[in-house]
Amino acid sequence: MSTNEKTIEIEVLRYRPEQDAAPFPQTYVVPYSDDMSVLQGLQYIKDQLDGTLSFRWSCRQAICGSCGVMIDGIPKLSCKSFLRDYAGKGRVRVEALANFPIERDLVIVMDSFVEKLESIKPYIIPKEPRPLSAGEYLQTPAQLDAYAQYSSCINCLLCYAACPQVGLSPDFVGPAALALLFRYNSDSRDGGAAQRMPVVGAESGAFHCTAVGYCSEVCPKGVDPASAVNQAKGASVREYFMGFLGKGGGK
Amino acid sequence: MNHSANPRRPAQTRRSPEPIFWALFGAGGMLSALIAPMLVLITGIAVPLGLLLPADAMSYHNMLALAQNPLGKAILLAVVALFFWHAAHRIFHSLHDLGIDAGNGARLIFYGAAFLATLAAAGALLLLGF
């Protein structure tokens, strides 16, 4: 390491359940260049300074959604955040995503999210059986626009770390799952809305949302879960009152 | 999922009554966004200061005529009641945002207040006659 190499202090929240009673911060001094992401800083620590540090990562290009962490208290993908942006202060704080139990260091337990994701049936449920010979589904640009942005979700859970309601009510099905629910309900190929609407209208459903909107701000893929959740509320209200008229179910 | 310890059914399968309150909240929000600023301007600034509107725009006779007209009654009831339901819902959920665990007691207080205000407004409008 040359003496004029730039360095930054990375403060990492450590927690190794077999030896630590509680999470605690540990600071590492890491040499960096302008093109280094926070993820690369963590990788430097693991490779050069402290092999016991645990964190999730895979693609390094904001596609896999594995490397979400709190960076200076804000949910971000560590691969999409750069050390140079924190150089002014000379230090950056990296912690496990908020609102989830910590499994180890920066690794969270995401079982609750996987259950919620399964509950919304995140796949196209065809309206009727369709033989291969019927060919591909055709969609107009308008039909594609109805759901396209919501299909960009990579399940990185930044929106769950951002959402105050997820923190207050762990049962809340949450922004990403509701955005994906809305994505499938809005797809012209899909006929499963009636199966998904009970998730929206349940006590753990969309009405937990108080329209804070921070979920949409932190999304690294430009998805707007707040909009999806609030449109889902509208759909649920229509479904609720149509139910009194004997026209329940559907969109 | 293991919910056997919970004697109640899990929250995932209980239907929320929230659509009723959210619909009233939404209606009140729409109404307050559209007309509340103008109401403040008219009743709080323009009429007291004698600007833009005739001096007797809100005189007793004019107001009584408004409140005795069936359409006027409907508008007054909607404005008073829906503003109350909107406020009750917003305050209740803001408590939750602030980390105050507002349960059914708080629901009873806020939605109850909106309900009583609705009854009071409807009663007053009926007592004024047609």
From TrEMBL, chain A:
Subunit note: Part of an enzyme complex containing three subunits: a flavoprotein (frdA), an iron-sulfur protein (frdB), and diheme cytochrome b (frdC).
InterPro entries given in the database record: 2Fe-2S_ferredoxin-like_sf, 2Fe-2S_ferredoxin-type, 2Fe2S_fd_BS, 4Fe4S_Fe-S-bd, 4Fe4S_Fe_S_CS, Beta-grasp_dom_sf, Helical_ferredxn, SDH/FRD_Iron-Sulfur
Ranges of residues in domain 4Fe-4S ferredoxin-type: 144-173
Molecular function (Gene Ontology), one example: metal ion binding
Keyword Iron-sulfur attributed: yes
Annotated pathway: Carbohydrate metabolism; tricarboxylic acid cycle; fumarate from succinate (bacterial route): step 1/1
EC number(s) from the headed UniProt entry: 1.3.5.1
A Pfam family annotated for this UniProt entry: Fer2_3
Annotated protein name in UniProt: Succinate dehydrogenase iron-sulfur subunit
Family statement: Belongs to the succinate dehydrogenase/fumarate reductase iron-sulfur protein family.
UniProt keyword Metal-binding present: yes
The entry's keywords: 2Fe-2S, 3Fe-4S, 4Fe-4S, Iron, Iron-sulfur, Metal-binding, Oxidoreductase, Tricarboxylic acid cycle
Cofactor section: [4Fe-4S] cluster; [2Fe-2S] cluster; [3Fe-4S] cluster
Gene3D superfamilies documented for this protein: 3.10.20.30, Alpha-helical ferredoxin
From TrEMBL, chain B:
Keyword Membrane: yes
Transmembrane segments: 21-51, 71-88, 108-128
GO biological process, one term: fumarate metabolic process
Transmembrane is among the record's keywords: yes
InterPro entries: Fumarate_red_D, SQR/QFR_C/D
Domain of life: Bacteria
Record GO cellular component, one term: membrane
Keywords assigned: Cell membrane, Membrane, Transmembrane, Transmembrane helix
Any one Pfam family match given in the protein's UniProt record, by short name: Fumarate_red_D
Protein name: Fumarate reductase subunit D
